[in-house]
Amino acid sequence: MQAVYFDTPDLALSQGGVSLRIRQSGDTRTQTIKVADAKAAGLFARHEWEIEVADMTPVVDDRTPIPALLDDEAGTVAPIFTVAVERLAWVIASGEASIELVLDRGHVAAGDRQSPICELELELKQGEPAALFALARTLAAQFPVRLGVITKSERGYDLLRPVSRAFKSERIALGRDASAANAFEAVAGSCIRQYRLNETILLDQANAEALHQARVSLRRLRSAFSIFKPLLDGDEVSHFQSELRWLGSVLGEARDLDVLLAKAKSGGSLFERLSQARDAAYAAVDTALGSDRVRALMLDLTEWLACGAWRTAPSTRDARDASARQFAAETLHALRRRIRKRGQSLATLADEERHEVRKTAKRLRYGAEFLGSVFSSKKRSRRYGKFVGTLETLQDQLGALNDMATAPVVLDRVGLRDDPGAKDLLAHRKKSKIINAAAEAYDDLLDRKTFWG
After folding, report:
1. Which of 57, 93, 220, 355 fits a 20 to 30 Å CA distance from 167?
2. How far apart are CA 336 and CA 44, in angstroms?
3. Beta-bridge mates of residue 92
4. Cα dihedral: 359, 363, 365, 369 (round 10)
5. 227 phi and psi, to 5 degrees?
6. How many CA atoms within 13 Å lie on the side-chain side of 108?
7. Looking at residue 43, what is its pLDDT?
8. Mind listing the pLDDT tens digit for each residue in 59-92?
9. Closest by alpha carbon to 101, among 131, 75, 121?
10. 23 beta partners
11. What are the residues facing 31 on neighbouring strands?
């Protein structure tokens, strides 16, 4: 199978959440236009257009949404990358379920750059979703498969950009009519995607930024479980929290050493010994990421999101069905009240107490990022930007203080507390200045108008 993807020179289709491709299979050429972005989808009654075409020249007339989306740019649409795969397909019967299993092997090419493809896709044709995951587990028991989160078109567009060293969290777009359950699904799915994108980088190289972002994704997911706790029921939640905490701690040990190394003087004995400890920590990360335990965790999470008991538990029905907007206002208000209470007299708090403020600020920021899109007016968007910006400043200052507090613990853990070079790392010359900056950011946060009120 051959496919050519098209866009304008400035990638206007991609930026508008639209993909345009022509796929050739045998003698048949099919043009497909898909609207994937939630904002773009609202502009059109349909989300997909498919027609047979005579050759590999795209049809962009009024039968398609392209003229409405691009106006005068419609005539500039041209090939940007190609996909070539060999596809094998089976239909598998499992009880009353029928599942199509597709294996694609090939590559995506843009100019002189290529990205290999080796993907298994499972599609439920008939039956219950549980059968789909049962087959996935059968495959996972035989082969080291991992949850896929990137499409072929995303691979192609990635080839048009500089190589990504890490992936930050993506904006979560929720409609005004979304339920709280819809919001949790979108948030958890976004966290899993961010983790998998960074995990892929880490499986190839010891990358400090990718490790940091992978850890952030796990922390965000744990926060999502806490923030959406009223919706969730069952023993699975505590199991997932425990597993995410374990994996986060493995990544955290390497991250702590990355932070110390960035502050240590290069060339000294401490730097060399920290580097050795860091290499050992990254080896532990590599072992964990390569384990059945981690691969199973991502599959378990995905199955639970799709068809877990939390979706139907009578005890949480009202919370699940509540509007995301109502849930957001109540939750963010409670988190803001909590940080107001815990952060009083921030400058005089002990390190452990400031750390609690930091964790609360982090949860408030994640909650704002998770749910902020349901408050979409221009006025509320401006308030959102200022509110989250102030939270980031507070987090940065509290994070710097936490690094100071944890440095001796990390050095003790790797047996380097007595190294002569450790004295400089443990010096807190700017601590009072950072505390004052944190207190100022805290006051600014309390003065900010909320975007959900």
Report:
1. 355
2. 38
3. 99
4. 150
5. -65, -40
6. 19
7. 41
8. 888 888 888 888 888 889 999 999 999 999 999 9
9. 121
10. 3, 30
11. 22, 51
- Tell me how far CA of residue 109 lies from CA of 22, 156, 157, in angstroms: 15, 7, 10
**Are 5 and 77 within 8 A, CB to CB?**
no
Q: What is the pLDDT of residue 17?
A: 84
Amino acid, res. 26: G
Helix H, strand E, coil C: the string for the chain is: CEEEEEECCCCHHHHCCEEEEEEEECCEEEEEEEECCHHHHCCCCCCEEEEECCCCCCCCCCCCCHHHHHHHHHHHCEEEEEEEEEEEEEEEEECCEEEEEEEEEEEEEECCEEEEEEEEEEEEEECCHHHHHHHHHHHHHHCCCCCCCCCHHHHHHHHCCCCCCCCCCCCCCCCCCCEHHHHHHHHHHHHHHHHHHHHHHHCCCCCHHHHHHHHHHHHHHHHHHHHCHHHCCCCHHHHHHHHHHHHHHHHHHHHHHHHHHHHCCCCCHHHHHHHHHHHHHHHHHHHHHCCHHHHHHHHHHHHHHHHCHHHCCHHHHHHHHCEHHHHHHHHHHHHHHHHHHHCCCHHHCCHHHHHHHHHHHHHHHHHHHHHHHHCCCHHHHHHHHHHHHHHHHHHHHHHHHHHHHHHHHHHHHCCCCCCCCHHHHHCCCCHHHHHHHHHHHHHHHHHCCCCCC
Task: Give CA–CA dist 285/199, Å, rounded.
Answer: 10
pLDDT digits (tens, 9 = 90+) for 222-267: 999 999 999 998 789 999 999 999 999 999 999 999 999 998 888 8
Residue 180: name the closest of 376, 320, 334, 368 by CA: 320
* Least confidently predicted of 98-102, 189-193, 202-206, 347-351: 347-351
Summarised one tens digit per residue, pLDDT across range 311-336 is 999 999 999 999 999 999 999 999 99
Q: In terms of Cα–Cα distance, which of 86, 363, 338 is closest to 223? A: 363
d(Cα 7, Cα 305) in Å, to the nearest integer?
A: 34
Contact residues for 267 (Cβ-Cβ < 8 A; gap 6+): none
| Tokens found for residue 364 | 């408030």
Q: What six digits make up the tokens of 165?
A: 């060293």
21 confidence band (pLDDT: 50, 70, 90): very high
Per-residue confidence band for 37, with pLDDT thresholds at 50, 70 and 90: low
